[in-house]
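Lecture notes, unit on protein representations.

Consider one protein chain, 313 amino acids long.
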Amino acid sequence: MVIDKRQMKEAIILKLPQEVEIIEVCPRDGFQNIKTPIPAETKIEIIDKLVGCGFKWIEATSFVHPKAIPQMADAAQVLQTVKEKHAGKVSFIALAPNLFGAQRAIEAGADAITFVISASEKHNLENTKQTIEQSVAALTEVCKIKGDCKVRLAVATAFDCPFAGKVEPGQVISLIEAGLAAGADDIVLADTIGTATPLQMEALLKPLTQKYSQLSFILHIHDTQGMGLANVVTALSLGVTRFETAAFGLGGCPFAPGAAGNIATEDLVNMLHKMDIATGLNYEKILQVAHCIQEKLRIPPMGHLARIAACQG
C-alpha cells in the first residue's frame, strides 16, 4: 500500500499535542558548568531577555554551597532582583539540594523549588553526598515548609547513570512513589547524561503515563549523543507536553562525567513550530537571547540553530 506525504503528515499530527509548555533552565543548568565567573548583572540581563520571550516558568538559579558550585554564589541576589522586576509576569524556579538550600530559596522568593534525587544510588551519593533514603527524608522536610512554593522532585539519571549504567524503570517508579508520598507537587524526569534513546524513552514513559495519568510529567533532556529532539518526539507521542530546555544549548551536571548541554531552547521551539505545535514563545526573540549569551559569555554555540546563525553572521 502506498501512502502519500499528505496522508503521512495527517497520521503523525493526529498523535501529537497541539500545545507544549517549555520551561527555560539556562540561567541555572546552563550557567552552573561555566567555570569563568558570570557577573550577577549579566545573569539578570539574560533572564530579563528570556522573560521577554514569553516563558511562564524560568529556572533562575541554584541555592547550593558556593564551594560546590561557585557560579551560584549570587543566587539570592539574582532571584530577588528578577522577582522584583518581573512580578506577575513569570514564575521563577530555584534548585535546592537540601533543606538549608530550600529555606534560602523560599526566603528569596522562589515560586518553585527543584529538589534533585537520583534514581541511581551511586550518582545520588556523588551528587548530594546522601543515600536516596536520606534525600527522600530531606525532601519530606522541605515539603513541610514549602508554604505556597511548589516543590518539584527532579529524578536524575532516570534512564542511564554514568557510574552504574542503565537505570531500570522500577527504580524510577520507586522514587516517584516516595516523592509523591513526601508531598512533591511535580515530577521532572531527567536524562542527566544525555544517552537515552527513543526506545528507552518509550520503555519508561509508557508505563509512567499509564500508572500516573493524573500527573503531567516534565522531561529534562541533555543532548550528549544528539538524540534529544528524537526523544522529545517519542515523549510527545506518549502524551508528555512539558519540557525543560536551555537557551544556546548550555548545561551539564558537574557530578555526571561526560554530560553535555541540554536541548537548545531555540532548536526545540523551531521544531515544534514547524510541526504546528504551539509553545506561546517568540522564536526570534529566543534566537536574540542565544546571540546575547554568545556575546556576553564568549563561548561557542552548542545548539544547531545558534551554530547556523553564528556561521551566517
